[in-house]
Specification:
The structure holds two protein chains of two kinds. Chain A is built from no helices and eleven strands. Chain A is mainly beta. In chain A, the strands form two sheets. In chain A, strands 2, 4, 5, 9, 10 and 11 form a six-stranded mixed sheet that branches. In chain A, strands 1-3-8-7-6 form a five-stranded antiparallel sheet, with no helix packed on it. In chain A, strand 4 and strand 5 form a beta hairpin. The chains are: A mainly beta, B mainly beta.
Chain lengths: 112, 116
C-alpha cells in the first residue's frame, strides 16, 4: 500500500461546478498537509497548507483534513477553465521539505 | 526576481552517458531539493541540501550525485545514465523551517530527461 493515495483522474467537470479532490494516507503521524497545483509542463506551486485537523478557506478553495479517517480534501467552488491542472497532495511529520510525501496527483479539466 | 531556474529544459542521453543538471535560485533560500516526477508515482526526493557545502540523500538517491558549492546553486549529476532515469526532474528551494509555520517550497520549471 502506498503511503499516500490519490485518484489519478482525469476528472472532467463543467465550468461553475464544485470540485472535490481527495487523498488518503496511512501514516497517522503526519501533521502538515499541503495542496500543490501543477499546470502542464510547469513546476508545482503551493495552493494551500493546513497544520493538523480542520478546515482552511482561501477564496474559492477550501482544504479539509480529517485525521481520524486519514483523509484530506480540496474543494474548488465555481470552478474555472483556468483551474485545469494536476493537483498534488503532500504531507509531512514536520515542516521540513525533506520529509514531504507527495501523492501522484489528480488531473482536472474544467470545460467551458 | 527569476525565482528558481533550471537548465537544460530538455535532454536526450544514451545509456552510459553523463550529464549535470543545474538549478539556480535568487531568493537567498537555505534549503534546496532535487525531485523526480514519474507517472503514477508523485514527486520523489533524490537529494537535498540545508546549506552551502552540505548535501544529504533523499528517498531515491542511487545513480545520482549532487553538489552545493554556492548557496544559490544546486547541481544534480548523473554519472552513467540508465533508461530508468528517464523522468522529469524538478529543483525546489525553501527558507529554513521555523516553528510550526510551513515553509513553502518554490519549484523550478523542470528538466525533461530521456535516456535511450
Amino acid at each position: 500500500q502506498k503511503e499516500v493515495e490519490q485518484d489519478p483522474g482525469p476528472l472532467s467537470v463543467p465550468e461553475g461546478a464544485i470540485v472535490s479532490l481527495n487523498c488518503t494516507y496511512s501514516n497517522s503521524a503526519f501533521q502538515y498537509f499541503m495542496w500543490y497545483r501543477q499546470y502542464s509542463r510547469k513546476g508545482p506551486e503551493l495552493l494551500m497548507y493546513t497544520y493538523s485537523s480542520g478546515n482552511k478557506e482561501d477564496g474559492r478553495f477550501t482544504a479539509q483534513v480529517d485525521k481520524s479517517s486519514k483523509y484530506i480534501s480540496l474543494f474548488i467552488r465555481d470552478s474555472q477553465p483556468s483551474d485545469s491542472a494536476t493537483y498534488l497532495c503532500a504531507m509531512s511529520f514536520y515542516n521540513y521539505g525533506q520529509n514531504f510525501v507527495f501523492g501522484p496527483g489528480t488531473r482536472l479539466s474544467v470545460l467551458p | 526576481n527569476a525565482g528558481v531556474t533550471q537548465t537544460p529544459k530538455f535532454r536526450v542521453l544514451k545509456t552510459g552517458q553523463s550529464m549535470t543538471l543545474l538549478c539556480a535560485q535568487d531568493m537567498n533560500h537555505e534549503y534546496m531539493y532535487w525531485y523526480r516526477q514519474d507517472p503514477g508515482m508523485g514527486l520523489r526526493l533524490i537529494h537535498y541540501s540545508v546549506g552551502e557545502g552540505t548535501t544529504a540523500k533523499g528517498e531515491v538517491p542511487d545513480g545520482y550525485n549532487v553538489s552545493r558549492l554556492k548557496k544559490q546553486n544546486f547541481l544534480l549529476g548523473l554519472e552513467s545514465a540508465a533508461p530508468s532515469q528517464t523522468s522529469v526532474y524538478f529543483c525546489a528551494s525553501s527558507p529554513p523551517a521555523s516553528g510550526r509555520r510551513y515553509n513553502e517550497q518554490f519549484f523550478g520549471p523542470g528538466t525533461r530527461l530521456t535516456v535511450l
